[in-house]
Amino acid sequence: MQIPLITLKEALLLALGEAAAAQVEQSAYDYIVAGAGAAGIVAAEQLSQSGRKVLLLERGGPSLYSTGNTQQVLTWNDTMTTYEARPSWHWDVPKGIAQAAAELYEHLPGTNLASEDGKRYDDAAFDITSRFLLANGWSETDAIKDPEAKELVYAHPAWSIANGLRDTPVRKILDAAKARACFSLQLGAKVLRAVRTGSKVTGVEVERADGTREIIPLAEDGALLVAAGTHSTPRVLFNSGIGPAAQIDIVAGGTTNWIELPVGRSLKNHAVATITLTGAKENVPALPATAFPSPSQENIDLFAHSSGVLMQSSQRLNFWTSLNTTTTRQYAVQGTVRAGANSTISIQLYLTHGTSSLGEVSITPDGKTNMTISPLLRSAEDREAMSAGVNMFLEYARLPDSILTVADNVTAEAILTKIASGAHNLGTAQMRVSNDGKSVVDEDTKVWGTDNLFVVDGSFHPKVPTGNTQAPIMIAAKYAAKRILALRRDW
User: Fold this and answer.
1) Where is the signal peptide (predicted)?
2) What is the pLDDT of residues 339-374, one digit of tens each?
């Protein structure tokens, strides 16, 4: 059935300047999840356990060969895994988030020994850096067994690897959902907006890979969960008439049918400083540049048996501690260590929990969202904390008997001129307990002013974690889905 869509101004579509036409799918769903990333897959699977009709939408195509990606042959470099540290979480009801974490880790337990032959490969960087830290009062921990240990500790990196492959929700969690008759997955479906009447969402409009548009309806008591990522979730909300008035003016040319919330205005990230130390007194061999893109036959043979250096990431050691600024604000830092070159140790220092700097994501007239303000070290306190972290390692390296050293002319000020992004973006639709003008969702991840619209990805996280974001995002999405299921009778 064809129906005419209303104009941009009326419908808040993507600034096309003319009316469009879309088909309406006849089947309605109890839950629609927009975005099949780590959060979307986990949330959709949790919802599908209820037996309700669940639809997971993803703008891209299949990601793995095993799920149908036969058009792209991946290179060695593209298949390498990354490290992952378990987080600690504290969110509302006692044991609620902890239970969600325990359930997630049953599917994705992680490991700090990825090679199935039980050996650690290319571990010289861990050896020398662990002794360097130990000499300065640090101690070794197991980040998987004791995720709460975050003060002057180091560990072998925790990786999301199992059976010789990257252990992802696509492999472990999506399959569980697909086995249920109530679950559906649609690829090549870009979610444009929530279709809503006042506070109630009645469906979503999607754009197919061929450019056609379709409205997918929700059941009368259904709900839409947005999990499009910290840059694309704001786009969906803006185009749904939700966000700062200036943003809605861009996509709609002005309208009175909008909900004004600070969407996109609390972007957070981990700032990263790189510190290079020299192990002049000891030989610290680095992997050749060809190790991953053009591996040796020996390493290929080991990889075929789920073993060897190709089973690992480039990082060899992680560490965590805390810092205080002159205003007594406490910060957490995380670090990763690898051998950047022969006899050279590269430390990446991440400023994590406690970060106060905020950035912004905005939409442009062509319908794209862009980071218009970077969140990296915008506040004086954040810069002071990062400088203190860098100086801590420079001071260690300048002690008389240090096994790692640094040149006298290296300063924290110079290092901070080359700050990088941790690519751990969060907070563009952040959660707070009240609609105080600083948040977008409540403690059930429901968008303020709506009846049945939720945000379940990293966009709602109000603070950056003390480690990487993938695990916290999945855990929080799982817990959010449980809360949403419990709310069903209320809308």
Assistant:
1) 1-22
2) 988 999 999 999 999 999 999 999 888 778 999 999
